[in-house]
Write a structure and sequence with these properties.
The complex is a heterodimer of chains A (157) and B (93).
Chain A (H helix, E strand, L loop, with lengths): L10 E6 L4 E7 L5 H5 L9 H19 L4 E13 L8 E11 L3 E10 L2 E14 L3 H13 L11
Antiparallel strand pairs in A: 1-2, 2-4, 3-6, 4-5, 5-6
Chain B lengths: L3 H13 L20 H15 L5 H9 L5 H5 L1 H16 L1
The chains are: A alpha+beta (157), B mainly alpha (93).
Pathway (chain B): Glycolipid biosynthesis; KDO(2)-lipid A biosynthesis
Organism (chain B): Rhodopseudomonas palustris
GO biological process, one term (chain B): lipid A biosynthetic process
Chain lengths: 157, 93
C-alpha cells in the first residue's frame, strides 16, 4: 500500500471470473503521513481507507469482468462495518464478489481479513462507464501490471 | 394478484422512504417523487431481483439523452410498470 497515492492493492492473489470473485493482498505500511494524524501516538488505518481498499478490490474484479473496457466508480457504500482496528504493518487479505450485475451498475460484497480474522466488510455499488480518456486507461493498465492483473485480460480496441 | 405497479410502488416506498399513498400510476419517479439517479439504482436493483429481469437503464438513459425518448416513457410509473411487463414477457418467450 502507498496510502498517499491511494495505491491500496499490492497483489492480486486470486481472480475467478466464473465465480465473479477476487482476493488481493495489501500490506499496511509501517510509516505514512496518514498515521501522523490518525492518531498521534496511536496509529490506525482510517476506516475510509479500508472502505477504499474494498472498493479498489471490487473495482479490479469488475474491470476484469468487463474485459478492461469500462471503468467502475464507487457510487454507494452500505452496511460498512469496521470490526477491529487495523494497524501499521498488518498484511490484509481482501475479498470481493459480485452480488448483482445491473445495467450500468454493479453491486459487490467485500471484506478485509487480517490474520484470518474479519476486520471489516461492506456492500458496495459501482456505476461503470467506458474509460473516460486514454490517460486513465493507460494509468489503469500500468497499475494492472504492477499488481499482477492477468495480462491476457487486458484487451485492446 | 398484485399488479406490477403495486409491486413497484411498494419497492419505491420501502427503498426511498416515500409514503406509499403518495405514489400513483401517474407519478413521475424523478419529477414528482424526487428520486435521484443514485436512489434509482437501488430501485432498479430491487426490481431486477423481484421480477428476475435487468432493467436496461443504460439504454433508456441513452435514448433520453439522444432525444429519442422522453423521461415520461420510462419513469412515469404506469409506463415503468408496462416496460417491466414487457421485459418479463420477453424473458419468458
Amino acid at each position: 500500500m502507498n496510502l498517499e497515492y491511494f495505491h491500496l492493492i499490492d497483489r492480486i492473489a486470486d481472480l475467478r471470473l466464473e465465480q465473479r470473485s477476487i482476493t488481493v493482498e495489501a500490506r499496511v505500511p509501517e510509516k505514512s503521513t496518514i498515521f501522523e494524524g490518525h492518531f498521534p501516538g496511536y496509529p490506525l488505518m482510517p476506516g475510509v481507507l479500508l472502505i477504499e481498499t474494498m472498493a479498489q478490490t471490487s473495482g479490479w474484479l469488475l474491470i476484469a469482468l468487463m474485459q478492461f473496457q469500462r471503468m467502475p466508480f464507487l457510487a454507494a457504500v452500505k452496511e460498512a462495518k469496521m470490526r477491529s482496528f487495523v494497524t501499521p504493518g498488518e498484511t490484509l487479505s481482501v475479498e470481493a464478489s459480485v452480488i448483482h450485475e445491473g445495467s450500468g451498475y454493479t453491486m459487490t460484497e467485500a471484506k478485509i481479513k487480517s490474520g484470518g480474522k474479519l476486520a471489516c466488510n461492506a456492500t458496495l455499488t459501482f456505476r461503470h462507464v467506458p474509460f473516460p480518456n486514454p490517460d486513465l486507461r493507460g494509468h489503469m493498465e500500468a497499475m494492472a501490471k504492477q499488481i499482477g492483473f492477468p495480462e491476457q485480460m487486458i484487451t485492446h480496441d | 394478484m398484485t399488479s406490477t405497479f403495486d409491486r413497484v410502488a411498494t419497492i419505491i416506498a420501502e427503498t426511498c422512504d416515500i409514503p406509499r399513498d403518495t405514489i400513483t400510476p401517474e407519478s413521475h419517479a424523478i419529477d414528482d417523487l424526487g428520486i435521484d439517479s443514485l436512489d434509482f439504482l437501488d430501485i432498479a436493483f430491487a426490481i431486477d431481483k423481484a421480477f428476475g429481469i435487468k432493467l436496461p437503464l443504460e439504454k433508456w438513459t441513452q435514448e433520453v439523452n439522444d432525444g429519442k425518448a422522453t423521461t415520461e416513457q420510462y419513469f412515469v410509473l404506469s409506463n415503468l410498470a408496462a416496460r417491466i411487463d414487457e421485459l418479463v414477457a420477453a424473458k419468458g418467450a
